[in-house]
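Tokens in:
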């Protein structure tokens, strides 16, 4: 057998796996790993990001848009530690990323070489990653690398997907051994995990007999590409579909059975339907506090008496936050198919459009749209975020991809902005990670180069990773980045005002210390400095033409949009409840 170094083994494996890019920043601790990629640059390319957090976010966005993982690489010490927020974000949202970091030379563990933190445990960066990854490995022998790399790809992409992290001491990257490069597909399962037949039958019976059934759909449905089955099942019986933030896009949002969202930043329609359901069929979701109104009974859900059927690939989710009537462990697509077959065997397709339940759904949908109108149709300058989003939607294609990370932009993108296809609304749902949208949208654009890809960030969010515009320009990754500038972390200020009182805003606006004036850098000048197309948009009618020019430019683009600063025009709607503890002295007042 030929001899391969640790770095060569990984390069060979990635080429077999069909991974098109590795993403990261080199340092002395990873150059033996990186070196063999020089010879293979026609088969696999390196994307040089400017911060390791962004490497993970970029790979995360790539996976969410395409279902295919990338590999990220970092040096030892700070380079590896910089991945933490990226990995945690990918882990919470079940997104597959494979990371490789350097580690201290195995023969000098504990000496305190440059960038080793050894005072309590030697060469132990991997311990930091344990709670935020599906699995970590520290490989101390080069002949073990083939085993670890196929395990890593299997772990990241099967079952409930998620990030994994491999630590390779520098000598292991450089040393060689006679090894065979594993064939990826020979080391992982194929096919989908079906549900228990008895449980599926029981679930189908409950749904068929229900008077007010509702489906609750989470990110698991999108991850398993189960939208077709979801819509089929909903249309078979006329079941309204409520989605979580991660499930948004699983059903086209102009579908008559789309009942929008439950939760604190959900919709009046989704909350009403979900809390009044007699049977709730939840698929691929984890009942997080934001989608359940912090578990306050009767606001978003009333379980019990609502009977819950919960389908998830991860058994730990079943029964975790609510008691279940039927819990089915299985892949969303496989179980939805089984449910459709079971329903077909017990009843025929319903003509649901004439039922009072369907009519009540249509009424609730209209009422929700009406509640949004004052914000959406507002002619205020600066624009409301709602008005901007309405103009944005009109200007873009049905299959355009929208990426949001935190603050009002994330919440309102979820609440007010219709999307029509799975994997076109990408959001760091579980972490609300500021700084995610810019690099994640670049990953989405790399995965789907022919699609319009738009990131939408607040000014605070954008400033956390805007250095990646350099990467975008370098590689010609032509995402359009919309910066909604309200001169502060106003979603947090508005929370202070809404929950603590109208005079309790503090340390959340950006004001110059000397003058008290609102302060902001110029985002168009910043974009100019990076070499991006850029425009400043103040009026609603400027949105569509500016987007057209940005997309036509073929360059990465930054659109700076001042948005409403005045509360409550600065925010969207709260239609559920969120448990934000109030200091005792304010509660007394
Ligand atoms: C990395 C990170 N730090 C802190 C927070 C807490 N947080 C949530 S939203 C927010 C403000 C976001 O500001 P901006 O992006 O300007 O949007 P806006 O709130 O003005 O809509 C903060 C600080 C977070 N979600 N992520």
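Residues out:
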């Amino acid at each position: 057998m030929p001899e391969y170094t640790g770095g060569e083994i990984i390069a060979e494996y990635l080429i077999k796996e069909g991974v098109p890019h590795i993403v990261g920043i080199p340092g002395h601790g990873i150059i033996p790993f990186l070196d063999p990629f020089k010879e293979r640059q026609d088969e696999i390319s390196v994307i040089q990001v400017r911060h390791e957090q962004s490497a993970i976010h970029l790979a995360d966005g790539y996976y969410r848009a395409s279902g295919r993982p990338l590999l990220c690489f970092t040096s030892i010490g700070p380079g590896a530690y910089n991945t933490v927020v990226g990995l945690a974000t990918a882990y919470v949202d079940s997104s597959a990323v494979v990371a490789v970091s350097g580690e201290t030379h195995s023969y000098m563990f504990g000496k305190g070489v440059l960038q080793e933190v050894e005072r309590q445990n030697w060469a132990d960066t991997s311990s930091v990653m344990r709670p935020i990854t599906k699995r970590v490995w520290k490989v101390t022998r080069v002949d073990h690398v083939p085993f670890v790399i196929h395990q890593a790809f299997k772990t990241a992409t099967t079952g409930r997907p998620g990030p994994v992290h491999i630590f390779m001491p520098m000598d292991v990257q450089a040393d060689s051994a006679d090894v065979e490069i594993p064939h990826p597909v020979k080391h992982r399962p194929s096919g989908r995990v079906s549900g228990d037949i008895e449980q599926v039958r029981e679930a189908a019976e409950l749904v068929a007999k229900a008077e007010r059934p509702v489906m609750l759909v989470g990110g698991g449905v999108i991850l398993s590409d189960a939208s077709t089955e979801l819509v089929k099942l909903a249309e078979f019986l006329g079941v309204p579909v409520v989605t979580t933030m991660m499930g948004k896009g699983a059903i086209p949002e102009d579908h008559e059975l789309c009942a929008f969202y439950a939760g604190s930043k959900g919709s009046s329609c989704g909350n009403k339907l979900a809390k009044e359901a007699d049977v709730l069929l939840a698929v691929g979701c984890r009942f997080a506090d934001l989608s359940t109104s912090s578990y306050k009974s009767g606001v978003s859900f009333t379980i019990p008496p609502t009977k819950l059927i919960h389908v998830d690939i991860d058994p730990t989710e079943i029964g975790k936050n609510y008691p279940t009537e039927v819990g089915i462990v299985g892949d969303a697509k496989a179980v939805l198919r089984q449910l459709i077959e079971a329903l077909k065997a017990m009843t025929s397709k319903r003509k649901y459009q004439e039922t009072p339940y369907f009519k009540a759904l249509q009424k609730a949908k209209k009422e929700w749209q009406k509640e949004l109108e004052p914000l959406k149709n507002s002619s205020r300058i600066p624009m409301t975020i709602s008005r901007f989003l309405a103009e944005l939607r009109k200007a873009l294609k049905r299959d355009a991809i929208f990426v949001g990370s935190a603050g009002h932009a994330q919440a309102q993108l979820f609440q007010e902005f219709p999307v029509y296809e799975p994997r076109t609304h990408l959001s760091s749902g579980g972490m609300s990670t500021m700084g995610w949208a810019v690099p994640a949208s670049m990953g989405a654009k790399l995965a789907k180069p022919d699609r319009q890809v738009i990131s939408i960030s607040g000014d605070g969010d954008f400033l956390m990773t805007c250095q990646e515009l350099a990467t975008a320009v370098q590689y010609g990754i032509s995402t359009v980045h919309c910066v909604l500038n309200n001169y502060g972390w106003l979603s947090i200020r508005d929370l202070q005002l809404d929950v603590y009182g109208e005079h309790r805003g503090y340390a959340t606006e950006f004001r110059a210390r000397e003058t008290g004036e609102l302060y902001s850098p110029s985002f168009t000048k910043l974009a100019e400095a990076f070499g991006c197309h850029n425009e400043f948009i103040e009026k609603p009618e400027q949105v569509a033409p500016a987007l057209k020019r940005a997309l036509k430019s073929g360059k990465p683009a930054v659109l700076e949009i001042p948005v409403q600063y005045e509360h409550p025009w600065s925010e969207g709607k709260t239609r559920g409840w969120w448990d934000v503890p109030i200091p005792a002295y304010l509660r007394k007042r």
